[in-house]
Design goal:
Radius of gyration: 13 Å
Shape: rod-shaped
Number of helices: 1
Structural class: mainly alpha
Order of helices and strands: H
Number of strands: 0
Helix content: over 70%
Oligomer: single chain
Largest sheet: none
Strand content: under 5%
Distance between the termini: 42 Å
Amino acid sequence: MAQFTQLSIYTLKVNSHAFFLFMRYNSVA
């Protein structure tokens, strides 16, 4: 169960990071 929680947090971090890069790329374009 702990591993599942860790995976969820990791996915959340990756998603927010990808979203940030996506927004920054959109503002530059």
